[in-house]
C-alpha cells in the first residue's frame, strides 16, 4: 500500500518549503515514514545515501515508488558521475516526480543540462557542496532551470577544511543568499545539522534564519516539525506585522523614510503567515 503525502505539506508551494527531508533510497522502507511526515518537501536520495554497488537498484526503487502513487523530489547523482544520465532518463518517465536536487553543482550549465533531460518545467534545486560551487553561485542561480539553491554543508567542509562553527560557514551561506536574490530565486536551503533535535535544532535554525536562508535539509522525519517551527516568522513578528497592517488600513500616516520598507516587510510576513497557516496557530 503506497504512502501518501501529508496533505498540508503537499499543498504548500516548494518555493516556500522550510523543511526538506532526505529519505535514503538505499531502502524503500525509508519512503513510507517520510511522506506522511511534517516535512514540507520530501527528497528520495539517490546520491551519497546510496553505496555505489546499489545505485541501479536504488534508481529502480525510486521510479517504482513514483509510478505507484508516491510523489517526491529526488536527489540525483552529480553530472560528473556515470549515474547522472541514467538517473534522469529513468526519472523522466516517473509521474510522481516533483523535481530534482542536483548533487555537486559547480557550474550553471550543469543545472541547465539537467533540466533539459526532464519534462519541461521540472524544477531543479542546485545543491552546492564545494568551494568552486560557492564561487559560481551567482551564475548558477541565474541559470535557466535553477529553482532554488541548497547548501551541502558536509561536503563543503570536507572540501575546504572549515569547521561547523557558524562563523566559519558564514561566507558560504551569505554567498548563497546574495546569489539567490540576484537570480530572483526563493531563499536558499541550508544544510542539515546532523544529530540535532529539539532545542539544539531550534538554535541551528536561528543561524539559518539570521543568514537569510529560508529552508533547511534534515535527515530524521521528526526533525521536520522543529524546522517548520524554527524558520517561519516568529509570533512576535506576526504580531508586529498584524499591528502595522491594521494601523495602515485605518489610515496611518507615513512618518519617515523607513515606513514603506517596514510596510513591505509586514506584508511579506503576512503572506508567509497565511501560507503556513500561522495567523491563528
TrEMBL record:
Gene3D superfamilies: Phosphoenolpyruvate-binding domains (3.20.20.60). The keyword Lyase applies. Its cofactor is Mg(2+). Keywords: Lyase, Magnesium, Metal-binding, Signal. GO terms for molecular function: lyase activity. Residues 19-185 form the HpcH/HpaI aldolase/citrate lyase domain. SUPFAM superfamilies: Phosphoenolpyruvate/pyruvate domain. Pfam families: HpcH_HpaI. Residues 1-25 form the signal peptide. This is CoA ester lyase. The keyword Lyase applies.
Amino acid at each position: 500500500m503506497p504512502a501518501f503525502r501529508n496533505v498540508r505539506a503537499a499543498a504548500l508551494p516548494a518555493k516556500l518549503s522550510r523543511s526538506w527531508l532526505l529519505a535514503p533510497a538505499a531502502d524503500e522502507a525509508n519512503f513510507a515514514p517520510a511522506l506522511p511526515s511534517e516535512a514540507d518537501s520530501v527528497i528520495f536520495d539517490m546520491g551519497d545515501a546510496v553505496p555505489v554497488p546499489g545505485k541501479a537498484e536504488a534508481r529502480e526503487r525510486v521510479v517504482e515508488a513514483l509510478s505507484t502513487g508516491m510523489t517526491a523530489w529526488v536527489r540525483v547523482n552529480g553530472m560528473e558521475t556515470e549515474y547522472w544520465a541514467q538517473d534522469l532518463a529513468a526519472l523522466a518517465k516517473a509521474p510522481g516526480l516533483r523535481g530534482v536536487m542536483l548533487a555537486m553543482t559547480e557550474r550553471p550549465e550543469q543545472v541547465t543540462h539537467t533540466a533539459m533531460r526532464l519534462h519541461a518545467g521540472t524544477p531543479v534545486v542546485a545543491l552546492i557542496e564545494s568551494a568552486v560551487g560557492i564561487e559560481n553561485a551567482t551564475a548558477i542561480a541565474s541559470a535557466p532551470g535553477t529553482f532554488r539553491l541548497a547548501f551541502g554543508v558536509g561536503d563543503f567542509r570536507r572540501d575546504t577544511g572549515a569547521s561547523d562553527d557558524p562563523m566559519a560557514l558564514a561566507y558560504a551561506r551569505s554567498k548563497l543568499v546574495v546569489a539567490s536574490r540576484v537570480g530572483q530565486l526563493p531563499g536558499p536551503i541550508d544544510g542539515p545539522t546532523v544529530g540535532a533535535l529539539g532545542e539544539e535544532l531550534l538554535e541551528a535554525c536561528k543561524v539559518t534564519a539570521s543568514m537569510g536562508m529560508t529552508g533547511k535539509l534534515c535527515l530524521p522525519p521528526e526533525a521536520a516539525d522543529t524546522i517548520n517551527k524554527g524558520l517561519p516568522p516568529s509570533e512576535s513578528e506576526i504580531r508586529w506585522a498584524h499591528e502595522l497592517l491594521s494601523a495602515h488600513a485605518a489610515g496611518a500616516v507615513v512618518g519617515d523614510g523607513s515606513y514603506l520598507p517596514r510596510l513591505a516587510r509586514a506584508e511579506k510576513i503576512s503572506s508567509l503567515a497565511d501560507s503556513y497557516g500561522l495567523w491563528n496557530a
